Amino acid sequence: MFLVGLTGGIASGKSSVLQVFQQLGCAVVDVDIIARRIVQPGRPAHRRIVEVFGTEVLLENGEINRKVLGDLIFKQPDQRQLLNAITHPEIHKEMMKETFKYFLQGHRYVILDIPLLFETKKLLRYMKHTIVVYCDRDTQLARLMKRNGLSLEDAEARIQAQLPLKDKVRMANHVLDNSGNWGDTRRQAILLHLRLERSLEYLPLRLSVLMGLAGITSLLYLLARCLLPSP
To answer: Could you say which residues form the signal peptide (predicted)?
Structure first.
């Protein structure tokens, strides 16, 4: 098994591309879903967020108000770093659990949806391949304004707060261009999946594990022979 990091920019279409891979039967670790799960009431990250940011970031049902918290950290970079320090360790634990589950199921590769893959670089070294979902800036702006109901000024501020997509493109192994019609983007994703699925890059880890299991089995056999009473 090998790991594939998927990233993009706000309103670039990353989530839609991720759904295509899921429909193709790919093993996908969606960091956005994990991020929502680890801040549910009763979880350690939820308690810590309330301690640090106060009850004003809560909805009436006790869940985190993502819009309020998002606006808060967007305007205050130091608060964003504080939130990341709370949530990232919990997110990484869940990512490791899900990745190991897919390994046991025999998948050849696992896609990890990591929004800040190139910004933090913490997980980059573990990725055999990296994919960027790209769209041109005008398309990105139009989609973001429509999706979030933002003004042009606010949409531009959100995009500028991220690493530019053109920089991510230069660092990626694969680029899926989502600037045009969706059918073309979907075809790009399918072709890339076929290429990754046919790759033999999954073999080294699988062979290492099999050799390790064979060694453990041999050791257990020898121990059992030693513990058996002599005739």
So the answer is: none
Q: Amino acid identity, residue 60?
A: E
Please give the average per-residue pLDDT across 35-43, as a whole number. Answer: 94
- Sign of CA pseudo-dihedral 33, 168, 133, 102: negative
How far apart are the C-alpha atoms of 112 and 127, rounded to whole Å?
9
What one-letter code names the amino acid at 201?
A: E
Question: Any bridge partners for residue 29, and if so which?
Answer: 112
- Asked whether 158 and 137 are in contact (CB, 8 A), the reply is no
- What is the rounded distance in angstroms from the CA atom of residue 12 to the CA atom of residue 218? 52
Domain residue spans of the chain: 2-203, 204-231
Give how far the C-alpha of residue 31 lies from the chain's centroid of Cα atoms, to the nearest Å.
Answer: 4
For residues 83 and 69, the answer to whether their CB atoms sit within 8 Å is yes
Which pLDDT tens digit goes with each residue over 121-153?
A: 888 999 999 999 999 999 999 999 999 999 999
- Superfamily of domain covering 2-203: P-loop containing nucleotide triphosphate hydrolases (3.40.50.300)
Element (H, E) at 113: strand 109-113
